[in-house]
Amino acid sequence: METLGFFDQVYEVVKLVPPGRVTSYGAIAAYLGSKGSARMVGWAMNQSHKMSYNIPAHRVVNRKGLLTGKAHFGGYDVMRQLLESEGIIIEGDQIINFGERFWDPAKELFPL
DNA sequence: AACTTGACGGTCA
DNA sequence: ATGACCGCCAAGT
Fold this sequence. Notes:
Layout: H1 6-15, E1 23-24, H2 25-31, H3 38-47, E2 60-61, H4 78-84, E3 90-91, E4 94-95, H5 98-101, H6 105-108
Parallel strand pairs: 1-2
Antiparallel strand pairs: 3-4
Helix pairs in contact: 1-3, 2-3
The chain binds a DNA duplex through residues 24-26, 29, 36-48, 57, 60-63, 67-72.
């Protein structure tokens, strides 16, 4: 029986992303296996603001390192400011040096 | 109950 | 390299 829903598992992973690093919707979905798709992770982030927990949703971007979710942070550049405050450089909506900033749960975390 | 809409990503032309 | 297409499936209409 599943104690935790898919969304909860997503939130657990996101909370483990270190400051100054980012991961992607697809990477989280892959880490959680066949339980959900990247779209579901995106939907989980969409709902994350309703959670009492503090979810660092700004550390989740798309697979190219683009800030595709920025519109959901209230102000137009809130997501960008949060990332820059952690030392991440952004031009336009693109994270610079995305390869070095990328944090892959499948490689950094133990298997589920 | 049926149809549309995405914070996505892989494939193919 | 760029763009269309499509599978994914929870929520909102």
